[in-house]
Please model this.
Amino acid sequence: MGRVTSWIRRRPVRTAMLVLVVGFAGLNFAAYRHAYRMLHYTDGGDRTPTPQALSTAERMLVLVWGVEVPRPANSRSPADFGLSSETVRFAAADGVNLEAWLIPAEARQGTVLVFPGYPAPRTALLPEARALHELGWSTLVVDFRGCGGSDGSETTIGYREGEDVAAALRWARARGLPGPYVLYGQSMGAAAVLRSVAACGAEPDGLIVESAFNRLLDTVSNRFEVMRVPAFPAARLLVFWGGMQTGFSGFEHNPEEYARACRMPALALHGEADAYAKPAEGRAVFQNLAGRKEWIAFPAAPHVALYGVDARRWRAAVAGFLDSVAK
Model:
């Protein structure tokens, strides 16, 4: 021990450099592992609790080893909500097989294609599907790749999921489902919906984007803030390594830029207490939407499904928007 102390005293510059190198390597290791565990679902196990439910020591452990995210599974069906449905399958452009529930409506007002957030299966959207059915709209409730009945066990937080949205819309048209066609996505689903239009050739008649984040880097940074730890440089490292693992640049996965290509009517829904996709960030997406658009805020609502916060407000906003698209 004395020799080590003596070496350090005689070589302060080398010691400082060694500490920096080791620290940087350790930070990169933690970021790589954290990114991998966020983007690759596990078989079984319990999902890591929210930051608010963790002690300080547990938060530090999560930051080092990453979160536990079991592969999202569908625990309920449309029948549990009094809805008749058909389970359908179709393939995305890259060959990934996807599964969805088709819930037809007798009124044939049109079709809403609905897409969940991260990390959720299509079961999570059954309350909204029932509300849309009551409004007379057929719904196609889709599992993204890696979730529920669809293939895979990975997610790209809305990047390749944009192809899933485009595939669902192609299938709906080929099946002859009634138009107009409206794409509705929550959080990651909103990012995928916007990307489907900007980069994947989707041409819907309307969009509903709920709790949309503006940039992947910003929403990752927000998660560090929720954990009460500095976002710099860890958020950038996590986005970098996540992109290296999945083959795309997370720094270019920016829904606020995708929105510039969206010229169809759009409705944006956002919680005013959203800590993961802050209201100002959702506003940035909204401001860039290029067509007729409407912003509806939900007072005191966090980053959750807004139908569950205020079903009456959600229903009124969505019903008015869908009526305007159908005219």
In short: The chain has two domains: 2-65, 78-215+253-326. Residues 2-65 form one domain. Residues 115 and 185 are 5 Å apart (CA to CA).
